[in-house]
Amino acid sequence: MMRGIRFLIPGFALCALALVWAACGGYEQAAPPPNIVVILADDMGYGDPGAWNPDSKVPTPHIDRLAAEGMRFTDAHSPSAVCTPTRYGLLTGRYAWRTRLTQGVLAGYSPNLIDTTRLTLPGMLRKAGYATAGIGKWHLGLGDAERTDYARPLRPGPVSLGFDYYFGIPSSLDFEPYVWFENDRVEQLPTDSIEASRPCCKEDFYRGGAIAPDFRHVDVLPRTVEKSVEYVMQAGDKPFFLYVPFSAPHTPWLPTEPFQGSSGAGTYGDFAVQVDAGVGDILNALDEAGVAENTLVVFTSDNGAHWLPYEIEMFDHRANLNWRGMKADIHEGGHRVPFVARWPGRIEEGSVSHELISLVDLMATFASVTGQTLPDDAGEDSYDLTPVLFGESLEGPIREAAVHHSANGTFAIRQGSWKLIEGLGSGGFTPPRSIKPGPGDPTGQLYHIEDDPGETNNLYAERPEVVARLSALLDRYREQGYSRPMTEASGRN
Ligand SMILES: [Ca+2]
Description:
Layout: H1 11-24, E1 35-41, H2 61-69, E2 71-73, E3 76-77, H3 83-92, H4 121-127, E4 131-137, E5 165-169, E6 181-182, E7 185-186, E8 192-194, E9 209-211, H5 220-234, E10 240-245, H6 266-288, E11 295-301, H7 309-315, H8 332-335, E12 339-342, E13 351-353, E14 357-358, H9 362-369, H10 386-389, E15 402-405, E16 411-415, E17 418-421, E18 445-448, H11 464-480
Parallel strand pairs: 1-10, 1-11, 2-13, 3-14, 4-5, 4-10
Antiparallel strand pairs: 2-12, 5-6, 6-7, 8-9, 11-12, 15-16, 16-17, 17-18
Helix pairs in contact: 5-6
Bound molecules: calcium ion (CA).
């Protein structure tokens, strides 16, 4: 892969410059560290954006623009096939199954999941002099009571975990309570109640429960975009980190009027077009604020699309492309996600990487970008992706392996072309969720992803030596509490 041509300072030199910048508060000849924007779609599939699927029925010109201006990944994975654990992994660089959450997601009244003594991604960037903000769907729990009391300050919450500023909704848009919160306070208490939407139908599904009087589900995506744009336009002299976890195109699918009918994939597709437009608005804000050239933008999704076989048929649209299964599943459709990174002059335009990466890698990557070394009790599963992003020649894969996790807590481990799944069934939404092996049957699934990307040919019985090797590695990762290289001094390497 070729190195970017406009900015030829090697990574280590940039880090040194970044340190000079941090120490001197902005030495005029040094390259300042970049602003960092992470946009996380909710349930957008690998086959939705056109850059990954030329036959997509969802026009995504803005995400495609990012891909044309940056590096697009074809083998990127969310650490989990559902929302909460992926968010935990992204913001801590650690797999969520190491916490109390060993399956499923949190609800709207769940307590905070992230240990407040843990170094988080925003906390790490704040140490490097960044202003840190999050705008959108939190879904990592609020407060420390068994049931969150929204009348009290929402601590611990995002502002206890490294964010200087947070504005958003507590969890998914189909979980009560339906409120906005800013930093540690709700904007308006959820004093009204709302009936569940038609429980028969998927597309505008939401649970009944408490709601703030002025809360409207349809406002959430536009308001998240509006606040993000506002943040970019008002950013000060400090470099900033902006985390934008959209609550869309997760259900309920609520495209606003200008987007209705804008795709060939029904209401879902229209909502995904609106997500793309939101990405465009944020990119335009970076351009207008004059900071796009020195901003590292990442766009990705927290898990695969919730797109059923009849919907594929109805719209001839493959939201998870040809990967097996869907959101929540342990198969690729559950966790292989679109991922693109753009940093003008540093990341080669229009490049494509087939490197196996995970969203937990953002922590170590941004540590590297800001000249920091992660302590051994942070980012335990996070690998530095900068050698890939900056087009350095690699001797081997960045990651020794990656661990995948499904909605019901089924594990898989991927190393090279091999993927071992502990157990049978999907582990998620696709039936059968689990299968009890018969006498003498294989107890798990082993696929050669390169030869068999559709995960159709289970080689578990044929390749016992691969099963044994990957099982041992997965066991080791679980037992030792980390999966990345550790420093020698820690005694954990
Ligand atoms: Ca999700």
